[in-house]
Amino acid sequence: MVKQKKGNENNSGKMKRKVYEKKLHELQVELCHLQEWVKAKGLKVIIIFEGRDAAGKGGTIKALTERVSPRVFRVVALPAPTDREKTQMYIQRYVERFPAAGEIVIFDRSWYNRAGVERVMGFVDDEHYKRFLKLCPQEEKNIVDTGITLIKIWLEASMKEQDKRFAARIDDPLRQWKLSPMDIESYSRWYDYSLARDKMLKATDTKHAPWYIVRSDDKRRARLNCISHILSVIPYKKMHQPKVKLPKRSNKGAYDDQASLKGRRFA
Known about the structure:
43% of the residues lie in helices and 12% in strands. The chain is of the alpha/beta class. The protein has a single domain (17-239), classed as Rossmann fold (3-Layer(aba) Sandwich).
């Protein structure tokens, strides 16, 4: 948990930008060390981000991945299932994206759609919903038993903060794409989502795959807390990296590479 010191907050009680950027840089350096450890040891990691609409999943994932290799940190955000996928085992299309050795896969929403949006919006019947809650802990036990580290994070924003963020999306053309028809429909079902969340947590918060809740009214603090938590649950050590020395260029001046660009179109 990232604790605030006196003077590190702005007038709204949220973390100041300079404080946030300094701490984020420190954590991103550690993520680079974690990345090299995961590659060297052939670890397999899944990180699930779930939460209310506008809770800050996208921004948190961006902060987590913007300084590391996409070959190691792979983000998966699946669209609605196709007609063919609807006939498969529910978790099947997610399993296809699971990590190989040396990879960390981040699910921006996951198989928990069944217990959240599908339940609230009536896309799943009671039988399949109850079966999911019953079987999910065992399926996750199987995932963990194969050697995958499974981290589940729920971002929780308050009703007041969600109102503020939705209003910002409506007024800002750079963020209007974030406001989908499904978001508008789900906005009025706050308490339905609260009930679905609580039933999901009760049924699937297990010793082998626990849920961790991060309050996200302060986006900056939430991002730092998420990254700090991930670093704390994956044991790693700083790998020794030999200092890189650039070799001399061969046949220097043997070819005028700039002359060949004359007359070409430049953007």
